Amino acid sequence: MSDLSSLLAEVGRTAALPFEQAQTLPSGAYTDPEFTALEVEKLFRHDWVCVGRLDEIPEPGDYISHRIAETPVVVVRQADGSLKALVNACRHRASELLHGVGHVAKIVCPYHAWSYDLTGSLKMAPFMGDAFDKSGICLPELAFDLWEGWIYVTLDSTIAPISERLATLSARIADYRTSEQVMVYRAEEVWACNWKSLAENFTESYHLFSSHKNTLQPFTPTQGVWCEPGDDGWDIHWMDTSRLQDPVWPDLTEATRATFPLMHAFPSHVFSASLNRGFWMSLQPQGPDHVRVLWGVTIARPAIPQDPAALAALKAEIKETFDGINQEDRTIVESISRSLKSEHIQPGRLGEKERTIWEFQRFLARALGAPAPAAAVAAE
Ligand code: FES
Ligand SMILES: [Fe+2]
Q1: Whole-model pTM above 0.70?
Q2: Would you call 260 exposed, middle or buried from its count of C-beta atoms within 10 A (0-12, 13-18, 19+)?
Q3: Which helix (H) or strand (E) holds 262?
Q4: How far is the CA of 108 from the centre of ligand 1 (A)?
Q5: Ligand 1 atom 1: the closest Cα is on which residue?
Q6: Where in the chain is the domain with CATH 2.102.10.10?
Q7: Which atom of ligand 1 is the closest one to the Cα of 125?
Q8: Ligand 2 mean position to 328 CA, how many Å?
Q9: What distance, in Å, lies between the first and last C-alpha atoms of the chain?
Q10: 3-47+163-368 has which fold?
Q11: What is the distance in A from the centroid of ligand 1 to the CA of 67?
Q12: Residue-wise pLDDT tens for the chain (380 aa)?
């Protein structure tokens, strides 16, 4: 058995444990480059990646760029209001074309100024001469999918829409009208930890009373955190909040305002449905011990201030607040990444407020093709 095969067998054995005996994955799942390469292949080149929200690109020419594994991608609002997802690399010599989130009338390469219309068709190629035939040269299209206002892109156009596997989640969180959230802040960072450590950290709120005792615990105490069973494509946990969320819609009950869910849309999108501060991350591995973190904060549309100065102040407050909370998490998850490299680390037991981690393990085992325990024994 290769090292990767035995690691996969161990992941399969761990994921197959009943929840009452759940434990952490073997440390190799967080440190082994071959395991990460398999994750990139199965979970990132052949699954869906969240790139942002529809409300970020309302007008023709608005775009969101990102990178999925090695491929630069861009989602562009078309003249007719539809969307296209395109490979964001020039058809000349592959310079990346658009950066960040923004607006363009046409897509112009920064290198030699070849320019494309919003559909990705090449329109101008300066100094290439009359013999150069531009017709038929265009940026390759990619598949995208929409769910509750989120935009997902995949490099594999053959896979089933992510919205199908999240349909059961829509029903569970309908009260929170996630599709009516608006992005108010986004950032991209690289943290020195395995991408799964950060996903797991986001989806368990057991740690609030300790890691966030002065920031989150006063408002969303660990005591009011509970997990519910998820589904094959997602997990969920809930938290009570001592500070009622704004009554942004008249039909919101007090019970809805007093709680909200945090979810993981497998493989790599984690988010909350808080009406006043919807926190989200889209994660990608950069080797076993680094993660590219695209993150942001959304707010229910009726709670967005109309006054520009008030909105700017709100964005500044959100940045400061979430930079602080993220730093509390980052200190911990980066320390985990350092520890897991030691041969003295053994799997640890998971508690009832970490059911989400166990469900994520079961997704990983399925998606990575980890053998079920009986099959693993037969292969040894
Ligand atoms: S690489 Fe884009 S114009 Fe040359
Ligand atoms: Fe945290």
Answers
A1: yes
A2: buried
A3: strand 259-265
A4: 9
A5: 93
A6: 51-147
A7: 3
A8: 7
A9: 7
A10: Naphthalene 1,2-dioxygenase Alpha Subunit; Chain A, domain 1 (3.90.380)
A11: 19
A12: 789 999 999 999 999 999 999 999 999 999 999 999 999 999 999 999 999 999 999 999 999 999 999 999 999 999 999 999 999 999 999 999 999 999 999 999 999 999 999 999 999 999 999 999 999 999 999 999 999 999 999 999 999 999 999 999 999 999 999 999 999 999 999 999 999 999 999 999 999 999 999 999 999 999 999 999 999 999 999 999 999 999 999 899 999 999 999 999 999 999 999 999 999 999 999 999 999 999 999 999 999 999 999 999 999 999 999 999 999 999 999 999 999 999 999 999 999 999 999 999 999 999 999 998 875 455 44
| Mutate-to-test residue for ligand 1 from 86, 92, 134, 139, highest number of ligand atoms within 8 A of CB | 92
CB-based contact 274:298 (threshold 8 Å): no
Give the number of whichever ligand sits closest to the CA of residue 113.
1
Query: Starting from the edge strand earliest in sequence, which strands make up the sheet with 83-87, in order?
Result: 49-53, 150-154, 141-147, 83-87, 71-77, 62-68, 101-103
Residues of the chain with CATH 3.90.380.10: 3-47+163-368
Which residue among 99, 109, 128 has the greatest number of ligand 1 atoms within 8 angstroms of its CB, and so is best to mutate? 109
Pocket residue to mutate for ligand 1, from 86, 88, 90, most atoms within 8 A of Cβ:
90
Determine the Cα–Cα distance for residues 339 and 333; give it in Å rounded to an integer: 10
Contact 165, 231 (CB under 8 A): yes
CATH superfamily of 51-147: Rieske [2Fe-2S] iron-sulphur domain (2.102.10.10)
